[in-house]
TrEMBL record:
This is inorganic diphosphatase. It comes from Selenomonas ruminis. Its cofactor is Mn(2+). Keywords: Hydrolase, Manganese, Metal-binding, Signal. GO terms for molecular function: inorganic diphosphate phosphatase activity; metal ion binding. Residues 224-350 form the DHHA2 domain. Its EC number is 3.6.1.1.
Length: 356
């Protein structure tokens, strides 16, 4: 069968998956005919693996587990998968809500899959070009996926993919068990920075409030602090491991760039990590040879954010992109977001530089 580019398939499927399902359904609790939305997708009576991006996080893991459960309740053979063994905060989250860790799937070749929280091969695990993609549930930009048949595609510009999954529960009338509500709530809380992030939507806020009640989380501050403590401790980690904890790669014409993101719990750790990461980045061998390295360092206690970088080109681009930037760092606005604030500014200046 001829492969279809998802950017074209979206034109067909969007009407079924996005436009026809108003967000207001969350408030109304209205059920929709779920089967009709999937009438054009051939699942071939196969077990389908629900999988998040290779760089997984609390939101992608929670959304994966929640969506796999929802699909199973709708009569489809689905199983959640993770891209790698879970780190400390994700493991803590699953233990807290008494949910077993999903099996690891590091190669999708030959599998039938539902992609959650990503829609590009670059973000996916290995072998995704040889997998059979039947659904995509995401909040990010389109990434050029291809499929051998019709794909159910849903994309809503929220802060959390877990909010989209919860909306699907509401629309279909499927009850959310306490444990599933817990992992979805953790996903929303993490992705929205406990509703303090700059990209929080009304859907995120309502999902947060309702899931919190279903999950029975009474003391948000205690729960949030425990997750933070589990998530943002860097004890026993090497400089390389810390730098690569939340790392995204980009290509701009002839230049490849990495923008990592690191969050610290307080002023003391923020100061320590700034010195430690700059020292590490100064030792990266190819920082002046076609590679740009940036790190967004954030202080969770104050919202302060700085951009760190090393290398001649990185410095030149940063000085153009951010007011007040010096040789190795720039002060960003509070709660700056890598996707919304940092990457576009760097890309714009790098593309402008490449024109000369």
């Amino acid at each position: 069968m001829q492969k279809r580019n998802l950017s074209k398939v979206v034109a067909v499927m969007l009407a079924a998956s996005c436009v026809a399902l108003p967000v207001q359904a969350l408030a109304a609790g209205a059920a929709v005919d779920y089967a009709k939305l999937y009438a054009g997708v051939d699942y071939q009576n196969k077990t389908t693996c629900v999988i998040g991006p290779e760089s997984q996080n609390m939101d992608s893991v929670g959304a994966t587990i929640g969506y796999a459960y929802l699909k199973s309740k709708l009569g489809m053979a689905t199983e959640p998968r993770v891209a790698a063994p879970l780190n400390r905060d994700m493991s803590y989250m699953l233990e807290y809500f008494h949910i077993p860790q999903p099996a690891v799937m590091n190669d999708a070749a030959g599998q039938q899959v539902i992609l959650v929280d990503h829609s590009s091969y670059a973000a996916a695990i290995n072998g995704m070009k040889k997998a059979r993609i039947v659904e995509v549930i995401d909040r990010h930009n389109l990434g050029g996926l291809e499929s051998g048949g019709f794909v159910y595609y849903r994309n809503i510009p929220t802060a959390a993919t877990s909010s989209i999954v919860y909306l699907s529960f509401k629309e279909t009338g499927v009850e959310v068990p306490k444990a599933i509500a817990g992992v979805l709530f953790a996903g929303v809380m993490s992705a929205t920075d406990n509703l303090q992030g700059s990209n929080v939507t009304a859907l995120d806020r309502q999902a947060y409030d309702e899931l919190k009640g279903i999950a029975g989380v009474k003391d948000i501050s205690v729960f949030h602090k425990e997750l933070e403590k589990a998530a943002f401790t860097h004890e026993g980690m090497s400089d390389k491991e810390i730098f690569e904890t939340d790392c995204k790669d980009y290509v701009v014409k002839d230049w490849a760039m990495t923008i990592s993101q690191l969050e610290c719990l307080n002023d003391e750790e923020f100061s320590q990590m700034k010195s430690r990461m700059l020292a590490y980045m100064n030792k990266i061998p190819d920082r002046n040879a076609g590679m740009l390295y940036f790190l967004v360092l954030k202080n969770r206690s104050t919202g302060a954010a700085e951009l760190l970088y090393t290398g001649t080109m990185a410095e030149a681009v940063a000085k153009k992109a951010f007011a007040g930037a010096d040789a190795n760092h720039a002060v960003l606005k509070n709660n700056a977001d890598r996707k919304r604030d940092v990457e576009p500014a760097i890309r714009t200046e790098l593309e402008r530089y490449m024109q000369y």
